Amino acid sequence: MIKLFKIVTYEKFQKEVEKLLGKSLPKGYLSPSAIGRMLNCGESYRRSYIEGVWTPPSENMVRGTLVHRMVECILKQFIKNYEENGLTYMEVDALNYEEYLPSKDIAFTETMNSIYHKEMQSIDYSCGGTVEDVIEDHAKKAREEKLLQEATQILDLWYKDLVDHLYVPISSEQTYYGMFDWVPVMGVVDMVVWCPSSNTRMVLDLKVGIKKRNPLTSVQLCINGLITGIHEVGFWHMTPAKIRVGPKSNISTTKLHEADVKHMSSVILQVAEAVRKEC
Questions:
Q1: Distance CA 193, CA 160 (A)
Q2: Is 216 within 8 Å of 258 (Cβ atoms)?
Q3: Tell me: the pLDDT tens digits for 65-117?
Q4: What is the reported pTM?
Q5: What kind and span of H or E run contains 186?
């Protein structure tokens, strides 16, 4: 590992953030999403992270959020189940897997109670008008039901794949911290799982949609791999169902190398310098 990067504790991270907050960096730190947005479009970064312009989520974003929350619920309950029984993730195997595996029902119930209605109220419907106008549209109810049905179908397939691979979750939606030279970086990682067949820990980013992503070129995966200290990274890509074709699941992974670390450190420092000029 090069000296530019190191994993840090939350306390160390906060001390560094306080030095930069509102000065060199708007929030005092960078995140994988902020870095990616700055690389793709500086103006988009400025509007979102400096001006604080909020954009209502689309239907596709709401569908993705529903799936993410249900997956998070299952994984966190899974971890709780085996940890309360005094086990580590490596002690969960084919013989006791189902004993600690939560039911899908818990995810559906908790997600409905916590975010479903909130997310639906914020959808930016393409028919135009204000939220109040859209609510009066009779088609809104059909859209809501369709989104929930699609999210549930995707969850069913994801759950089946989880069990088929005997993946054991190590963390879910957990925050990790790192320092790239003077730049604090914070990332929320969708999931870290253990694959018993290969005895490998993997950082996986859950994506819901039709867009194909390459783990070899992902800024987010590279950063998440570095801040977790786990260099096997990948996308768990869930494609929504189409007419006559059900949802699809695909896991693609890659391994980070020294060259990736050096390159990402350079990219982050360049982005940080560009952001500093905007402040």
A1: 15
A2: no
A3: 999 999 999 999 999 999 999 999 999 999 999 999 999 888 777 666 655 55
A4: 0.85
A5: strand 183-195
